[in-house]
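Q: Convert this sequence to structure tokens.
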Amino acid sequence: MNTKMKAKAFDAVDMMREIRDKISDETQAMTLEQLKKYIADRLKNSHLKTIGR
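A:
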């Protein structure tokens, strides 16, 4: 079987890793309460609906 690899214009796995690493860097020294506030603020400012609402 002969398969050829195409160059990806967008790599979702790579993007997810970058986002995860950025969030980890921002939150690594936070307490649980600080982390809860961080998440709440991010959700509030994202203009996205939370699941189940």
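Helices lie at 12-27, 32-46.
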